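Quick start: read one record
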Amino acid sequence: MKIPVSAGIFKSTGQMRGERLRCLGMTDLEKAIWRTVCWFAIFEYPLTAFEFWKWLWSPGHQYSLAEVFDALAESPWLHDRLQVKQGFYARRPGRPMAELVAERQQNFLDSVRKYKKLRSVIDWLSLAPGVRGIAAVNTMSWWQTNGQSDIDLFIIVQPGSIWLSRLLLVTPFALLKKRPGAADRLDPFCFTFFVSQSAIDLKPLAVLGADPYLAYWTMGVVPVFGRAGQWREFQAENQWAKEYLPNAFMRPMHRELAAAGWRPWPGSWKFLDQGARRIQERRFPEKIQLMKNRDSRVVVNNEVLKFHVDDPRQEFKRRWQELINYEA
């Protein structure tokens, strides 16, 4: 069942406690801004006014950028609860604004370095038969990595080739010790999320009720390779995220970071897919074997390979609710 934008996060799940916000006499826009800044406060990520508008969570209707600017500048309620420096806003109480801005700038520079490393291997990754799209995700998509961060990738493949594609992509990085957990951990490549073209609608992977993390994640992917309109199709299949983030738009292929890719190996290789599955399943860690297909954290089938053993979505959602309902 679709949830209209006007329902908002508080009507999308009975566990949300929005009563305190409603009784404070806030406007709908102030509530949406407050929900948004509380979400990004979890990650200590300061926002510009434009980013507030773009990532505004579940407003009653679609506000203009000028309206968001005016609310940030003129609302006494928000003024008492937000700190601002150099055009960035963050929730208070919290770390000093100067620290947050400096950290965001430093993390951005680390992300630039990682994207250059990713760009150097995209053409090679595109050779694997079945690969239709590659995107940077997680901290990479927010340009908020640090020296310990992985280069996290989301891969879209042709139906019937998901296991073979993963085997061909992961094996060279494992041999070169460029996977998470290896001794040389500088910028390891993490291949923990593959989907078939027939499973690019990610809504079935949402946690029960509203899933703000998945909505922001879906709208925040950074495509670095795609064939024949693959990312337009991905956007069309994930319009559910726009119900919560009506101003958000998916990033286009980055002119300097993306690659046209090389032609994949010729011929059909799908007959090798189930053999590749048997090889990989025998090597799964015990934790993945225990968790697979019990919920949306670890999903293992011929359409989706998702190995998020430490999936923080429920914890983030709980902390977010606490911050929303804390009257600063």
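The longest helix spans residues 97-125.
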